[in-house]
Amino acid sequence: MSDEFDKLRAGLKSASPAPEPAAKAEALRRAMENFDRHQETATRTRPMSDRPGRAGFLTGVREMISKMTSRPALAATASIAAIGVAITLWPQIQREIASPKPHPDTFDRTIVEVSPPAPAEETATLRGTAQKANAPAGADMAEADAALSDAMPAAEPVFEAAPQSLARSREVGVISGNFAAAPPVSLAAPAEDTRLAPSRPDTEAYASATPNPVKIAAEDPVSTFSVDTDTASYSVIRSSLTNGQLPPKEAVRIEEMVNYFPYGYAAPEPGEAPFRASVSLFQTPWNADTQLLRIGLQGVLPATDDRPPLNLVFLIDTSGSMDDPKKLPLLKQSFRLMLGQLRPADRVAIVTYAGSAGLVLEPTAASDQTTILAALDRLDAGGATAGQDGLQQAYAVAESMGGDGHVRRILLATDGDFNVGLSDPEALKDFIAKKRESGTYLSVLGFGRGNLDDATMQALAQNGNGTAAYIDTLSEAQKVLVDQLSGALFPIADDVKIQIEFNPAAVAEYRLIGYETRALAREDFNNDRVDAGEIGAGHQVTALYEVTPVGSPARLSDPLRYGSAPDGGPAAELGFLKLRYKAPGGSTSQLVETPIPATPSEADTDARFAAAIAGMGQLLSGPKYLGTWGWDEAIALANGAKGDDPFGYRAEAVQLMRLGQSLAR
Q1: Residue pair 458/517 in contact by the 8 Å Cβ criterion
Q2: Do 311 and 345 contact (CB within 8 A), yes or no?
Q3: How many domains does the chain have?
Q4: Mean pLDDT of the chain, nearest integer
């Protein structure tokens, strides 16, 4: 608006003849006298006999026109017109410049049209303007501008709009406010922020590490890691993509994505170890000059009647952060599904924590579902998150439940927001590490987004000899707590470690895809005091290595000139696989060994689908080693390897890839 006012003033100046100072002053003086005389006579009724006749009236009109059309009068009239226009426009100009604009997403507060000043105020303003403009001869236009600025009325206050006027404001863009009901807001200070209150800040934290690098087999031939059967990362990624956002890169853990899906691995034979290892070697989809080595472990699945009784403690976060439909309400629905899978010999207790911990349900037979469900229904969210108190009480309750041969497990359900007591993942790690010696397992179920503390959840599960899953839908609760209940709750092997020694005669380079947070030192493999992951009944573990054969043009590093390791020629073995595990509750590990053939084979459906998911994870976290291979290739590979997909998990993954492709553009 200020630009338009400048144009108006410039136009008036150019259209009017330059005023003569003496004539200007005289014209203004006469105008004010006539104005004052008009004001005085307007206050009383004029007698009809004093009115001039028609001839006198015409004569007066001619005389007035003659005076008004003289050069001095025209100049004065133009000046007064400019002043009048400026006075009329100034309130709107002032409002446009000084008044805050309403936020486009809300109509809580807005600008209201205010009437111009009262006639008396206008009179005083006009009189002051005329006196300043009647300056001595030689006064320039800058002085007139200063006089005009001094005479401008102050900007009107801003009023709160009445709620009933908001609907109409959306249609016409002008608000008629309820002035009596709303106090004015001074423009001397910045106006109150009119936007809606912001939602809870995003404080999500994820357990992540630098992606595994390519290693040279001749220099570092041994790779060691702890098995991982967690699936939380895949569910978090699904939650992000279905909500129209790419997941945070640190939330992508490729091994958890690959292990989310079931594969057709051979089960162990009676009398063998509680799991069976399978290996296969096939061409890498994104690099024709490298190969993928797949290691698959299949745990034994005992009959339901043969499994030991379960002492289960639900440790439920009821803090204020759980007050969300995707958190505590979904948690209650999920546990309802699970109760139907428990046997009469199983027992359930419920401990909650918020401002303080409390035992909500004494150990109760799983067959008494009415009592258990009533205790769940009474739970409400509120207070801070006293996680330490809750964990301490849950362990105490689990240990008190006793029972020889019973499996004791704490199932912690939380959004991970520990803000009272132990909140540091390292402190929690030490606390849980001491408690796992009692033989009580700890698994974690994550709920909700926004303040999901995945780092804390991973620290708890990995050090509590348990698993971590993330539940974002009731369908996911069905998968984790019904379809895979035995694997989630009943361990068949503890502290399972994998170590591969690659043959430098066959392998130039290799990299482990994923498992960054499960890496172990080479010497940790034989140390039974070093904790590792567990395998549950019927559970599977899948690990993928990308290997570069000796002589392949895909080699990223130059061979050493003076290296002593062999660097050429065929080799019968690609490497040697070793596994260590303990029986549940045991202290001494057992060793399983098997050679890895160097001859690649045709990739089966499961292998191709696992490779597609590994490619998806790399596309989401950083496609450093994928070359030109992208979303189209990943989608085609997964779509052609869905195979037998009774629950639609693989079809869902293809749809998530399509969403990822669209969001990544």
Answers
A1: yes
A2: no
A3: 3
A4: 78
